[in-house]
Here is the input.
Amino acid sequence: MSEDKIEGVAIANLIGTDERSIVGWVYRWNTGALAVRWDIDGPQRVLECRPDLSDAEKREIDFGGLTQIPTLDSWQDQL
Here is the structure.
C-alpha cells in the first residue's frame, strides 16, 4: 500500500446467518482503521468473521451490532 493515498485491504469475510454466504468484508486501511463493506444487498445480519478477528477488532467494527441487524422476516413481523 502507498502511504501517499488512503488504501485498504480486506482482512476478513463477514458470514451471513445461513453459515455460508459472504455478506460483507472487513477492511483494514493504511491509516490503521477498520471498516465494513457490504455486498450489493447492503447490511445483513452477520453470524461470524472468517478468519476470526481479535476482540479489539470486533469492538472497532461493532461486531455485536452486526449480529443484531434486523432480518427481512423481523421487519415483516412488525408490520
Remarks:
- The beta strands are 8-16, 22-29, 34-38, 46-50.
